[in-house]
Amino acid sequence: MNQAAQLLTKLCKVCIAPPPDLTVSQWADKFRFLSSESAAESGKWTTLPFQREPLDAVSDSQVRRVVIRAATQMLKTVTIENSIGYFVTQDPGPILILQPRDADVKAFSKERIAAMIRDTPVLRGLFSDPKSRSSNNTIEKKLFPGGMLAITSAGSPGNLARRAIRFLFADEVDKYPPTAGSEGNPISLARKRLATFRHRKKEIMTCSPTLPGSEIDRAYEGSDRREYYVPCPICGHMQSLMLKFYTQVQWDSSLTSREEQAKSARYHCENPDCKAAWDDATRWEAIEKGEWRARAPFNGIAGFWISELYSPWKQLWEIVLDFLTKKDNAQDLQTFVNTSLAENWVEKGEAPEWEILLSRREEYQPGTVPRGGLFLTAGVDVQRDRVECEVVAWGRGRESWSVDYQILEGKTSESEVWKQLEVLRSQTFKTEQGAELPITRMIVDSGDQTQDVYNWVRTQPASQVQAIKGSDKGILPVGQPSPVDINVGGKKIKAGLKIKIINVSFFKSELYANLKSRRPTDEELSQGYTFPPRYCHFPAGKNYGDEHFKQLCAEQLIMRSNRRTGRTKQEWQQTRPRNEALDCRIYARAAAWDIGLDRMQERHFKAMEDQLKAETDKLEEIKEQLKPEPRSPRNSSGESGWLRGRGKNWLRR
């Protein structure tokens, strides 16, 4: 055989030979290159110990679905990326990637997939040049020998049902809409496309946890529930780091700054006979020797759960500092719990005991603003036969003081009760220093007696009075204003009345957490201790009796299942008939959020203090000027001035 024939034979063997029998992690270690768009350092991929088993589960013929419930930047996206590269080169077939929104589709395609294809030589030659304007390589569709890669959003029912697929990779599943158009759950819809391939199909589902009963939560609970166990380098005890942040991570909270506290943090071995404190080097040593352990029988679904405590890119003090920075804000803390600890967020919605709040009332006069209060808001709840309103003062650290609570009797279909509310709206309240504070923002609920509320709000200063509607959900605690007035053609009038939607669930959770803050003892206060941030003060006076605090604690958070979708969600449930005091406080807090309390910095509080001091000084100056002049001093004989110098018998002359 001549040399040309030998070369041709070798080429044919290479071309028709089956691909080497690799796992996904082996493929990634051999072929994958990281891109600068998605990695801190570009270059050759190296599989970390905790990544190997989840990656290899994708190429395991016994596993039909891989579920990854993980912290950010740990395991989710890299599993999908490496699985795409593996199947494109090793076992091609049609692949569908689901992203939550159209914007996510574009970002994932450009920043992840296109970059991986460009920087991984074994993939580069299998796809058309993206600059060639070929329809074979677009943002949403990329053809390769033996298959196709389609990327679409979960809200596009047409794209979900368009084609048969063998591989379904669903990313960030808890962010999907409950239904794709009117056709049902997007994941269930996409799974129907797998039917053609039956036993050769493969699924990946990924997301950071969100709430109990969510899509990823139910998917993981239906798997074999694997956790990564690591040995203590001191005693050898095997332990999972999941759900251990609040018990095994400890730091010195007596240190002055958050940074100092965070840098004192150590993970402590859970073995009661050891309790060794691990520094970062010890923790990483343990992770290098770890192993995945299933907590349920294998049923074809491999589930993996991992938090940031396993991250080789994060030092423990950085994680603790992140917690200390976010722990005082419910939204920020939820982000930390979901994306760092990889745990479900459970609303702390249990109401405090009303008797405790009643016993904590303070000796300041209703109608006056205690020291520390810098501006006022008011929340108004409207019933058919009355209007109730709470005026609240706000200060540093979102500390609050209930200044006044008024119940204005009268039918809200008539004008008299609204005249009383207008008097209250225009009233000023005296501070301890003597200055007068107006109500900066008044929020009025329009959920009941809607038209009466709209009619009154239209007559009030738009910068001071705002109509709202409450909702159990919302992207922001207080939404953007939306017009409600319409013209004869049925179109909304942009210059007409506008209302805002407030997320009452957010504010209720926050309030109930705040009401549980511990009050410093009298001894601590005498030693200079201050009230904790977000502490809620109440006066001992009219309208602040048993009924007020029972209403304030009148709701609880429960889990309710949706029979149609199978999903569970949290919702607030009243435990007694009346809850007006709770609603008024929620609306007053929403008003404070709306005017920027949560974004205020020390310079803002200082400016308000300076303004109050200037007003107080001016009042003192006026008082001084209005003082009567002192009387002329009497002489030593006790005679007044006009008699001075006259004898005792001058009238007898």
Concise structural overview:
The protein has 653 residues and is an alpha/beta fold. It contains 22 helices and 27 strands.
Write the layout of secondary structure elements.
Elements: H1 3-16, H2 24-31, E1 33-34, E2 43-44, H3 49-58, E3 65-70, H4 76-90, E4 95-99, H5 102-119, H6 121-124, E5 141-144, E6 147-153, H7 157-160, E7 167-170, H8 186-191, E8 202-207, H9 215-221, E9 226-231, E10 238-240, H10 245-248, E11 249-250, H11 258-263, E12 266-268, E13 277-278, H12 280-288, E14 291-294, E15 301-306, H13 316-326, H14 330-339, H15 354-359, E16 368-369, E17 375-382, E18 386-394, E19 400-409, H16 416-425, E20 428-431, E21 436-445, H17 450-457, E22 465-471, E23 482-483, E24 498-503, H18 504-515, H19 522-526, E25 536-537, H20 546-552, E26 555-561, E27 568-574, H21 580-594, H22 602-626
Parallel strand pairs: 3-8, 3-15, 4-6, 4-7, 7-8, 9-15, 16-20, 17-21, 19-25, 21-22, 22-24
Antiparallel strand pairs: 1-2, 5-6, 9-10, 9-14, 11-12, 12-13, 17-18, 18-19, 20-21, 23-24, 26-27
Description:
The N and C termini lie far apart (166 Å). This protein is α/β, with parallel strands linked by helices and 653 residues long. Helix content is 33%, strand content 21%. It has three domains: 23-221, Rossmann fold, CATH 3.40.50.300; 234-295 and 308-339, no CATH class; 360-542 and 577-607. The chain has 22 helices and 27 strands. The model is unreliable at 10-17 and 634-653 (pLDDT under 50). Strands 3, 4, 5, 6, 7, 8, 9, 10, 14 and 15 form a ten-stranded mixed sheet that branches. Strands 16, 17, 18, 19, 20, 21, 22, 23, 24 and 25 form a ten-stranded mixed sheet that branches. Strands 11-12-13 form a three-stranded antiparallel sheet. The protein is globular and about 105 Å long.
